[in-house]
Structure formats: structure tokens, C-alpha cells
Amino acid sequence: MSGPQPPTFAATVVLLREGPTGACESLVMRRHQASSFMGGATVFPGGKLDPADFDAPAQGRSDRECANLLGIDDLQLARAAFVSGLRELDEEALVLLARTADGRWPTADQLTEIHSELRSLHRGHRLEAADHHRVLTAAGLTLALDLLVPFARWLTPAAEPVRFDAWFFAALLPKGQHAQTDGHESTEVQWLTPADAMASHACNGPILLPPPTWHTLARLGGLGTRPQDVLRQLGDGGVGPRYEPFRIAESGQGPAVLLPSDPQHPQAEAWREAVRVHRERHEPDVQRFVWRDGRMQPQG
Fold first, then answer.
1. pTM
2. In what order do the strands lie in the sheet with 246-248?
3. CATH of the structural domain 8-240, one choice from 1.20.1740.10, 3.90.79.10, 3.20.20.150, 3.30.43.10
4. pLDDT (tens digit, 9 = 90+) per residue, 277-298?
């Protein structure tokens, strides 16, 4: 039998805003039911790194700073992860974190023109990353790496047929921009408080959260109500050790996915050592997710 599939590097962006009630909300999107990965699930915008992301123009952080923030030595990979997160956010939610050479935000007319041109370049459900970067460059805009705050890294369990090694970033919604569905990879985008999203998942509502999404929302819910404060605290905690869930066929309650903090996880001891230097991080009180009623439900 063949071993675990090698993971593909990916980037996910948790976009934050202050909601109508003053509470911090995050942007979530429902993946197209026909998607090959997590079809129908509610997730944050994101996707895999593309070769074009390694050479795309960007500003705001040096390659070394990107690598230091991600805790890796590969400068080019680190920069590409930041670029990929920004590109995917724009492709999937039509939120563009970019500036002109003199530091100005794109105008509403520019955004309309850019997204109209990008729509015309879609080949079926796919937009080539190189086309996205080319359109931005022609518009005099450069992706702003300094607007992303990395705060986590997740690796798909080894037992899964499709695997991703994904960095999670957070960012604030720019003033004057509005998230929209791209109509291709996502069928719906909405702003939710962490509590509302997790409550819908818990009662088998329309929000279906994969473990990394649930865990991230639980972290956000423990960091206050102002988006700026949440962003700062995520950045203070850093990326930290990588979450690598472990899937088991039977837990006494059915199939389960164990987080590294679970005593039965094969890397539990190494995880305890790794998190000692990140004691300031807020970690949800959950160690595993158990399959119940068609979804993974958290357990302490």
C-alpha cells in the first residue's frame, strides 16, 4: 500500500470586521457542493500556492520578515504564502488588499474594473494566478503583504486522500470594500460572529465547520470584540507549532479526529513541549472532533 499523500502548500485568510452590533465578525464562505475538497463546508477564503505566486510583485514585507513570521527558513516559500493568501482572498471574496506605489488604496471604480476583467479571464471555474497578478500590475497595484497577520498552520491528516499544509492569516476588511461570492468556488459568503457560526454547526444548522475552521472561530471568540484587538492578539501569539490532526476509525463514540493536545494523539508529548513557549496563546478547550449526525463535533 502507498503511504500518505504529500501535502500541497496553501494559504487561508480570516477576514475580520466590526459587525452592526459592534461585535467582531469573520467572513466565511460555503464551498461549492461540487468542489473536490470540502464540498458544501463553510470555510474561510483560501487555496493552494501557485507557481506564479513566487514571482508576483508585492510590497510591505521583506522575504526575510515573511519567513520569520511563518517560522520557516525558505524565504521564497514564505513570501509566496503571503501572496497566495492575498490572491485567494480577492479571487474568492473580491476583497483586494493592495496599494499603489505611493501607498494609495484602489478606488471603487478601479475595483469594479479589475474584477470585471478578472471575471472575463475565467476558464470555466478557474482563474489562472498569473492572470490575476498581471491584471493587478497593469492597474498599478501591488499586493500589500503587511496587511496579513499569520497566526496558525494546519496539516491535513495523513489518512486523507487530498492533503494541504496551510498557513492561516488574519486581516481587517478595508474601508469601502464589500465581500462578495465569486460564483465559482463559493456559493455564499456571509459575516458571522464566532458564537453564531459555532452554534449553527452544533445544532446541525446550515453552517458546517471542518475542525480547523471551528477551532479558529473558537480562538477568535476568546480574543475580545474589537477586530483590531483580535488581530493584535493573533499576531502576538505567532504561528506556533503546526496542528496535525490524527484520524482514528473508532473512539468509543464513532470515528474521530484527534488534535495534538489529545493524549491519544501519536505526537501528544512533542506537542506539549512545543506549546510551552506559546503560553500566551488562547487555545480552545477541545482535544478531538467526533463524527455525529453527519458532521465533526468538538469534544473537550
1. 0.94
2. 246-248, 256-258, 288-292, 295-299
3. 3.90.79.10
4. 666 677 888 999 999 888 999 9
